[in-house]
Fold:
Amino acid sequence: MPTLRWRAAGLPVPFREREGGEIECAPQCPVFEHGQVAAYVARMEIVQPEALRVTRAHKAFQGCARALRSRSGTVGDLYMESFMSDKVSCFWSHSWHGRTWMKILSLMMRYNGLPSVLVGSFTALIMMGLFAGGLLPEISRSSWSHEHWSTWSLASGFIAAVITFLLWQPRQLVFFDRICINENDDDEKFASIFSLAGILKRSDKMLVLWDATWGDRLWCLFELAAFVKSKHVSEQVLLIRPTFLGPCSIVLFGGMFLVMLPLTTVPIPDPARLGDYFILIPLSGAMVFLFITGYFMVAAFRGYFRSVRALQVKLRNISFDNTRCSCCDAGHVQDGTKILCDRQIVKECVSIWFGSSEAFEDCVRSAVLETLVAGLQERIFTRGWSLSVSVPLLWAFLDLTVSHAMGGHRIVAIAQLVEGLVLWFLCVPIFADVGMFFLRRYCQQGASTIHEILENVKVELIGVACFCFVAGTWFFLCSTRPGDERHAAAALFAGVWGTLALGHFMYKVLRKHGQER
Structure:
């Protein structure tokens, strides 16, 4: 925060004007200057109405996310994309020192992910209906049969989801510093900075885009302190989204599409030679694909959970004196001019709000630490998330369903639809929860490179075993059954996994109840 021109914002700091209009700090009470500024910011007021500005969320994604990629001084006219408001739907808290591309993908996943899945699923259903009506061409998967086969639902659903993800324009009103703060006008810039606590007070939600650098930045902790102070516990809507979430979700979604593609396209051999066991061909291909790519996903997830553990250690030893801020890094000099220390101002603000900076640090070590860590470990990879990234599985079974229906195998078609719903709605969430459990448990860094590789392989083998169990129950209970027994086999398959899902649900409820006690 530069000291020059603060008087223009109407702040009661001890400035005086020299001849020629030059403004300088008054010689008396240099410490009082920090106190005056801190006292003003701590009031959580808006300096001027123009300081409370918002933008539509999609504005941050325009121009290949130029606002998220640009650095100070290269923002051009981005400020013109914001407008005055009396309330903020969501305040974006983030660090400019993390990986930009991960932050971009995570924000797009947050705002465009659900519309993409819904549009893709709607498109898949439309294509299923068009194929059933004979309006779309079929593919031939065998030389001995003239049955109609569809891959329209899977392919079109995936393409529609990708296009929606890239082009969807979310309209939510958000506060994003790079757009809502005028970097090219000192008066407006300082007014926005002084109003930051007031803006947080008027924000319905705060979205923390967490990465390993977030907890190290002074202003990130200030934003957290202001939000916690300005809201009652029942009103606090603190959303934690790691920047890791966006890339990993996209990779899993694309991987699921590639795993399901052979299920609807692999040629079907003559049953006289291979019988119904041809399904082992796409299943084997899926297992090989998962084994090759799974290693890298396991390594990435283990690294993520390690960083969450590191955050726990960091927040238990949190201190404003250990955080980093730009003014201290620059030696409190900007463009040859002496500037005040942000750290002193922030510490005094927090002392006014919580009684002392140590009291806020204690608050972070208790309630805030629990909220952050629980959010990063357990409230991110939810059932909704696992269903979203695995929805290509459902689209593939829509293709199998309509293909069998068009071939006159109505019982098999109904059975395949039930099997697809069970695999997607029951099996995948359980598989994801079990996988996350082992990834969290075995995330400790290996003592050496060899040991780290072995740890990755160990967790990967557990995942492969779980996949084999899911695929095996489907194969032996359903795929090997003749057509007239398929409906009973599908019912048995649904009953087995319904029972497992109920037991899994009860376990989670009892575990949550035990943690609350």
About this structure: The two ends are 45 Å apart (CA to CA). Residues 1-32, 271-275 have pLDDT under 50 and may be disordered. Residues 409 and 447 are 57 Å apart (CA to CA). DSSP finds 19 helices and ten strands in the chain.
